[in-house]
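Q: My labmate handed me this sequence with no annotations at all. I'd like to see what the chain might look like in three dimensions before we decide whether it's worth expressing. Could you predict it?
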Amino acid sequence: MPNEKKPTAPRRAPAKPAAKKPGVGARVVRWLREMRSELKKVVWPNRKQLTNNSLIVIGAVIVVGAIIAGLDIVFRFIIDTVIRVL
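A: Here is what I predict for the chain of 86 residues:
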């Protein structure tokens, strides 16, 4: 088919020269400085808040552990019953 036009590739913008990246050491130093400034913004809990939050977490872990243990006992009983019947 002589009259068909071939698809042309899209034109690309001319490549810009790449900006030189700082070295590994400079990037590590910058990261450490930024991390230090971010840590200064953190509001750290006082001793009472820390104790209270820790007790809440320990309590939640105990409750969830008890629920999982209870479900384990129930499912074990069901499975043992099914196996004995078969």
